[in-house]
Design a protein that fits this description.
Helix content is 31%, strand content 21%. It has 229 residues and is of the alpha/beta class.
């Protein structure tokens, strides 16, 4: 049964004509009627079913306006880089000791960064880290010797772009409390990242089939697509 709050929201908004996100944000924010700072979320449907192969996207985008979230970043590195990770204000830092804690189920973090030299030890923990989406990956910038940069970017605001088997992608571009300018900058950063990914793919037709925006407890609106993506 829907709540009174939800029943008071506009109906069938996803059937409205698509529009630019700049023109939709006022409506999205007006629908944020909960007591907490709702997130502003994008939902994509991509054209992942190709004749010769299935498209699998996985990348990260640095959001210039941040995410509005505090991210717990863990770093596994050599002893000589531990101070760098601590100075970058990583939440957890360690070497073999942290690998052992992770192996024993200590997963009190949301992003894991690892140096290439330590990756061989973490690679054995795929069954622990993989299902949680925590396994470091060079393509995502989480296997690197530049610990300070990786931790700083993770804490400043990153979003992962990854489609499921049905071609759906969901990610947040900020909070209701963000100024529209910040949300629009984050949105454009996501679209630029997808355009870059498309150029690296062999794909027939457009990459994005549909795009909706909503708040975490609101209703969705269709965004007008740039047909170049």
């Amino acid at each position: 049964m829907s709540s009174k709050r939800y029943n008071n929201l506009p109906k069938n908004t996803n059937n409205l004509q698509s529009d630019k996100i700049d023109n939709i944000l006022n409506s999205i924010k007006a629908n944020c009627t909960t007591k907490f700072d709702e997130s502003i979320d994008l939902s994509f449907r991509i054209n992942n079913k190709q004749k010769k192969n299935e498209i699998n996207l996985r990348t990260v985008v640095n959001l210039p306006g941040g995410t509005g979230k505090s991210v717990k970043v863990a770093v596994v590195c050599e002893e000589g880089k531990i101070n760098d990770a601590k100075e970058a204000k990583a939440y957890l830092v360690g070497s073999d000791d942290l690998v052992e804690k992770i192996e024993n189920g200590n997963l009190d973090f949301e992003k894991l960064i690892c140096t290439p030299a330590m990756m061989i030890k973490l690679s054995k923990l795929g069954k622990v880290l993989g299902p949680k989406g925590l396994m470091p990956n060079p393509k995502l910038g989480t296997v690197t010797n530049d610990i300070v940069k990786a931790v700083s970017e993770a804490k400043a605001g990153q979003a992962e772009i990854r489609n499921d088997k049905d071609g759906n992608i969901g990610l947040s571009i900020g909070k209701k409390s963000f100024e529209d300018e910040k949300l629009i900058k984050n949105y454009k950063a996501v679209m630029d990242a997808l355009e870059k990914e498309k150029s690296n793919l062999t794909i027939k037709g457009d990459l994005i089939k549909q795009l909706f925006v909503t708040s975490s407890m609101g209703v969705s609106y269709k965004i007008k697509l740039d047909k170049s993506i």
